[in-house]
Amino acid sequence: MDKKYVAAYIRQNGLERMTKEDALKITHLNIAFCKYNDEGKLDSKVKNFHILDKIKEWNPDLKAIISIGGWSNGGYSEAASTEESRKAFAKEAVEFMIKHNLDGLDLDWEYPCCSISGIKSSPNDKENFTLLLKAMRDELNLQGEKDNKYYMLTIAAGADKYYTKFTNMGEAQKYLDYIMLMTYDLRGGFQILSGHHTNLYSPQGDIFTISADEAVKIFVEAGVPAEKLLIGAAFYSRKWDKVPNVNNGYLQVCGTTGAFGPDYTELDREYINKNGYKRYWDDVAKAPYLFNGSSFISYDDEESVKYKCEYVKENNLKGILFWLYDADETGKLLHSISENLEA
Questions:
Q1: Which candidate, 21, 13, 31, places its Cα nearest to that of 103?
Q2: Is 110 a catalytic residue?
């Protein structure tokens, strides 16, 4: 069996606290984020690229990749709109990559043909998205010929039919090394119905039936080989408040939407079977949740991550990604991923 990938999204704080033990458990490090600034140039909030030298000394096989985009970061519809703008974007991105001694590019355009995050979009994004990826792959190949090195190109993709509807994934995947399915935030910020936000399987009785398993099937049906897919784990939670004390808070119409909740560091310290919160397990969805009588929290833990790893191996997927390394100072979730992917 081929070695499975463990792709970790990381920000500045994460780079500062990365340990040798953790670096050896990760295969790909996605540095978040690089985006367009007000001058229309690529810029990054991360200032600790020099730390990568030490991390790569610990794990010479690790690939460091810059992630371009993220929620509410725009400019990509415009960049993809013409052949000239696509080539300019690709050239600038590769120059940024080389400047910081990185191994590839990851495009997190959220989302083509859609302005939900407050960015500009166009119906032409569907075709232009593929053309932008081709331009990026061509520029990476040119740089690779100069450096005698292969540079990677990946994307993070929304894990539902809207994403395959707004893109031509069967064509786009030809230019990509792998596709990371964001199988977290499957519900939350837009829903007042409590439930799982990072479940492996679709739960019973839930009108929002999307899951990691469903996402994989959607992308395979759209023409993406299973061996190019990674599914996501969440090192943070979604939390609903003003929840009716019925059915342990599960599938209840709440007084709030599912906002971002505590990260796993805080969950482990203050919430899981503590301070009035009780952990419950959904054996159909393979997902845990917490309830204290009025607040419902959906999250990933060591057990749910184990099932995701088993799914990756059983279905010949490329591996697992997670958001966000910075969010678990206990190291428990990464340890579970590393242990169970290799088992």
A1: 31
A2: yes
Q: Which residue has the tokens 């001058």?
A: 39
279 falls within a domain = no
CA atoms in the 13 A half-sphere facing the CB of 132: 32
292: in domain: no
Domain that residue 329 falls in:
5-235+300-342
The per-residue pLDDT of the chain, averaged, comes to 96
Number of domains composing the chain? 1
221 lies in some domain: yes
In terms of Cα–Cα distance, which of 12, 6, 23, 109 is closest to 58?
23
Among the options 84, 110, 310, 329, which is catalytic?
Answer: 110
What would the pLDDT profile of 270-314 be if each residue is shown by its tens digit?
999 999 999 999 999 999 999 999 999 999 999 999 999 999 999
Q: 276 in a domain, yes or no?
A: no
pLDDT band at 1 (very low <50, low <70, confident <90, very high): low
